Amino acid sequence: QRYRSALKLIAALPAGCKGNQPVASEAFLGWKRSVLEERVKDAANGVTGDKTVKLDPPLRSSPWRIRFSPDGRTVLVQDEGSITVVDRSAAKVLFQIEAPDAELAQFTPDSTGVVFNDSNLRVERWNVATGKREWVKELVVYDGCSQTRLSADGKTLACVRVTPLTNPPRIGLRLIDVESGNQFFEKPGFFEISAFYSYSAHFRFALAAFTGVDMVSLLESPDGKFLLAAAGQNVIAYDLIERHPIQLGGKLKGLQQARMTFIGSNELFMVGEAKKDGLRHGLLLSFPDGRLLKDIDIGDVKVDGVTK
Question: What is the pTM for the complete model shown?
Answer without folding.
Answer: 0.79
